[in-house]
Amino acid sequence: MQYAKLGSTGLDVSRICLGCMTYGEPDRGVHEWTLGAEAARPLIRQALEAGVTFFDTANVYSDGTSEEIVGKALRDFARRDEIVLATKVHGRMRPGPNGGGLSRKAIMSEIDHSLTRLGTDYVDLYQIHRYDHDTPVEETMEALHDLVKAGKVRYIGASSMYAWEFSKAQYTAERHGWTRFVSMQNHYNLIYREEEREMLPLCADQGVGVLPWSPLARGRLTRDWGAVTERSTNDAFGSRLYLESDRSIVEAVGRIAAEREVPRARIALAWLLHQATVAAPIVGAAKPHHLDDAVAAVELKLSGEELAALEQSYTPHAISGH
């Protein structure tokens, strides 16, 4: 495993982040394909043994049970000071007023609920899961700053939004002397590269580390075009993200993987790891070989010709994932 600084901070993170949306009780929340504790724990342990120190979850994943499973496993298998634990806030956790969003009330309530579920007294990276258009950005940024000063949060990060929204939040924090975001978790992979237009240059300029979600395009980059899995069959959100024109890129991944005699996932992840702003792709792992491929991708170096072949067929997409 290799490690890198998260943006311009002094925080070291493994070049692979284990995305923990995969872990949670399948009868809770909206994802029926998740793995419960018994199936998830061996994978979390495997990740730790491979040198992964960076784990990302969210309060909303499987109605909080992802945080419970991940927190318990990390307490059992790792030393708290040696891991970087990230979670998120924004999604609706209960019906009625103040059940979600980024108001001061919601943020202050949800961090305590997350800490209880995770079984820790702080999180290393607390991320806003989306932009909240119904709450003044000043209210959100001050509340997050107060969590840092209270010791409940070490760093703060953001997720998918427009570049102007991210810039506004950063400017607001700087203007008031509040804590700024150090990371951007956004939708970025070989078949969705719209972030290269504005968000990634902004992150490079501001020293913000990028943590791509869906780095394998919901698995589309790992299999033949048109092949289906249990998750893809039940993934209504993912079915809206990609286009028929993406087929040529998927085929290019397959050709290079065949020439290299490696699984396709390694090629797609290696491409992301070649991008200067990317600190760590967030990789979900439902099977042991998913982790094997992710870890191996860190060492895989693509040639200039291979990078060009992977990129040349890209076609613009409508903005998605915000």
UniProtKB/TrEMBL annotation:
It comes from the Bacteria. The keyword Oxidoreductase applies. GO terms for molecular function: oxidoreductase activity. Keywords: Oxidoreductase. GO terms for cellular component: cytosol. Residues 15-313 form the NADP-dependent oxidoreductase domain. Gene3D superfamilies: NADP-dependent oxidoreductase domain. SUPFAM superfamilies: NAD(P)-linked oxidoreductase. The keyword Oxidoreductase applies. InterPro entries: AKR, AKR_Detox_Biosynth, NAD(P)_OxRdtase_dom_sf, NADP_OxRdtase_dom. This is Alcohol dehydrogenase. It comes from Streptomyces shenzhenensis. The lineage of its organism: Bacteria, Bacillati, Actinomycetota, Actinomycetes, Kitasatosporales.
